[in-house]
Design goal:
Blueprint lengths: L5 E4 L4 E4 L8 E5 L10 H21 L4 E5 L6 H10 L3 H18 L15 H13 L3 E4 L2 E4 L15 H7 L14 E6 L14 E3 L1 H13 L3 E7 L3 H16 L5 E7 L2 E3 L2 E2 L10 H5 L4 H9 L7 E3 L1 H14 L17 H4 L4 H16 L3 H13 L7 H9 L6 H16 L3 H13 L2 E6 L2 E6 L1
Parallel strand pairs: 3-4, 3-9, 9-10, 11-13
Antiparallel strand pairs: 1-2, 5-6, 6-7, 7-8, 11-12, 14-15
Helix pairs in contact: 6-7, 9-10, 12-13, 15-16
Length: 452
């Protein structure tokens, strides 16, 4: 019998024993992408973290007893704005980005979730939930806008462990003249003739972002389920709002029993930002780095802790996998010794698990065949060494060329930043090119570049 799974619950602010509502029907919902732009390395972390949790839950409770739902948000203000900027239709944008996202998941060797619902397929259910909230006096209409009334839910702020005044002062909340309370959040907003919209009792419009996840999780997992996950940035306001509207609509005290959040990803100790130009997309990584390298790098730190994405981390992961592939062979991975997964049962302790992999590798290198089998099975369990050795080596040998116009533009941007005294931006551009596999050198007032 596998020992207990213990997991840190943001709701209680402590590690707890995981007790499913029904051990034969374990449910997990994780917030998926808003498909307005390519996913970046910060988005990759929850993909990999919750993929490992999905694998672990299936191991503990049985493959057919776990339902994993991860949504796709394909209607949102960011999508509308992005389609305008790119001068393409919303349908083309969301289709292209959704396809790219699915490729990203395959590249990272993530298992497919049980369900991957799209927001636009559930507008009717969203309208029904809003209608119910208005009837229950938890929401109100004002000039074709519908807002959730935060004051109607006494437990608001429990997940983020803050009272209302702290939430208003310390967070970005939408400012609107239609609100009764600064914390009230939109459930429905009107759309003009150029924007996507659906008919509703409040006029033609579209749903609010927070509402979408409540509806889709409820459809596939029920009004009350086991695990809700996502990045730390979603605790407030997104997850806080999900709880409020779901509990009020369903007249429940709970929405999900366990709330799990992964930590932030920084780029060379700095927050990733488009204005700085240090966003690293999964798509760009896939053109030059094997997905297993990225996966191992993301698992090298505990999921709750911050992770700094840098060249050293990538090189260490590459070197580790180069070494591990010396022991590669195809084996039956249907069974895995339960003692090996013990670190994962303690709040997904992947650093300790990887430490065990290093130990098993060293033992197998000494000719210990049992250790070798354990090592390979343990690697496969977290999605590593599933690609054959030849594919791994071929990827290593291939050198992907990058558009020279892109490189030259980045060098020009860096030189301009240096001339303007913005050395922080200049250094960030240099680091970005390093991640792309390009080294730049300043010699005799000229900047030259070469492949690593």
């Amino acid at each position: 019998m596998i020992k207990n799974l213990n997991i840190y619950n943001t709701l209680s602010n402590k590690k707890e024993k995981f007790i499913p509502i029904n051990k034969d029907k374990v449910g997990m919902y994780v917030c998926g992408p808003t498909v307005y732009d390519f996913s970046h390395i910060g988005n990759a972390r929850p993909l990999v973290v919750f993929d490992v949790l999905f694998r672990l839950l299936k191991k503990v409770y049985g493959h057919s007893n776990v339902t994993y739902v991860r949504n796709i948000t394909d209607i949102d203000d960011k999508i509308i704005e992005s389609s305008k900027n790119k001068k393409i239709s919303i349908e083309s944008l969301t289709n292209d980005i959704s396809k790219s996202f699915n490729k990203d998941c395959m590249y990272l060797n993530c298992l497919k979730p049980s369900f991957e619902p799209k927001a636009t397929d559930h507008i009717k259910e969203m309208i029904n939930m809003i209608t119910k909230l208005i009837k229950n006096k938890n929401a109100y209409e004002n000039q074709k806008h519908v807002y959730f009334s935060v004051s109607s839910f006494k437990n608001y702020g429990k997940l983020s462990n803050k009272d209302s005044s702290e939430l208003v002062a310390g967070s970005r909340v939408e400012i609107s003249k239609y609100k009764k309370n600064p914390l009230d959040f939109v459930l429905w907003k009107p759309s003009d003739e150029k924007e996507p919209g659906w008919d509703s009792p409040w006029g033609r419009g579209r749903p609010g972002w927070h509402l979408e996840c409540s509806v889709m999780s409820g459809k596939f997992l029920g009004k009350y389920f086991d695990i809700h996950g996502g990045g730390l940035d979603l605790v407030f306001p997104h997850h806080e709002n999900e709880i409020a509207q779901s509990c009020c609509s369903n007249k429940n005290d709970k929405f999900a029993n366990y709330w799990i959040h992964n930590g932030f990803v920084t780029f060379d100790k700095e927050k990733m930002s488009k204005s700085i130009g240090n966003i690293v997309t999964i798509k760009s990584l896939s053109e030059k780095i094997n997905g297993q390298v990225v996966r191992l790098a993301l698992l090298s730190s505990h999921y709750k802790q911050p992770l700094d994405w840098n060249e050293k981390l990538i090189d260490e992961s590459k070197n580790t996998l180069n070494k591990w592939y010396n022991q590669f062979e195809q084996i039956d991975t249907s069974e895995l010794d339960e003692d090996i997964i013990l670190p994962l049962l303690e709040d997904l302790n992947t650093p300790e698990y990887i430490s065990k992999l290093h130990y098993l590798y060293e033992e197998s290198s000494k000719g210990n065949n049992l250790a070798k089998v354990k090592f390979l099975k343990a690697c496969n369990f977290i999605g590593l060494l599933e690609e054959d050795k030849k594919s791994w080596e071929n990827f290593k040998k291939s050198k992907v060329t990058i558009d020279e116009n892109f490189i030259n533009k980045k060098i020009k941007d860096r030189n301009n930043a240096r001339n303007n005294g913005d050395y922080k931006l200049a250094d960030s551009i240099r680091k970005e090119l390093e991640i792309e596999g390009i080294i730049i050198e300043d010699k005799q007032e000229q900047t030259r570049w070469k492949y690593k």
